[in-house]
Design the sequence.
């Protein structure tokens, strides 16, 4: 089954207790999120938190943008918390702050899929597996991407 979420936006703050939280979509499986934007803060006490998508499995995230802050316990990214195998993210950008104790990045917290032509200018706060672009990569490809966001230790 496939579906497409296209040209959607969110400007409301989202505060959750559990994970799989995104500014536009919590979990995308076999679907696409295209041309969507989030400017609201996204926060959870759990994992898999993203400015656009919390967790993407076998799907695509294309032409999306986030400017809201994103906070969770782990697997936190400005665009996607976790990008699973066979998932792809392209032509996306983040300017929001990303914050987690582990696996946190300006674009993605954990990457098993492919990221291309994307960038982050947002600051990242983390301790383990923290980066201004991708917190942790266990496979896949990160190509033609950059970050000018600053990485700070979580205090």
Sequence:
């Amino acid at each position: 089954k496939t579906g497409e979420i296209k040209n959607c936006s969110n400007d409301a703050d989202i505060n959750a207790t559990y994970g799989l939280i995104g500014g536009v979509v919590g979990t995308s499986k076999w679907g696409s999120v295209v041309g969507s934007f989030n400017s609201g803060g996204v926060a959870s006490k759990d994992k898999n938190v993203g400015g656009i998508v919390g967790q993407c499995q076998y799907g695509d995230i294309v032409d999306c943008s986030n400017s809201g802050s994103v906070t969770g316990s782990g697997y936190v990214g400005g665009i996607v918390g976790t990008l699973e195998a066979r998932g792809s993210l392209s032509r996306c950008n983040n300017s929001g702050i990303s914050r987690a104790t582990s696996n946190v990045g300006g674009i993605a917290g954990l990457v098993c899929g492919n990221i291309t032509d994307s960038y982050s200018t947002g600051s990242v706060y983390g301790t383990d597996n923290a980066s201004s672009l991708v917190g942790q990569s266990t496979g896949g490809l990160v190509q033609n991407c950059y970050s000018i966001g600053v990485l700070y230790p979580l205090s």
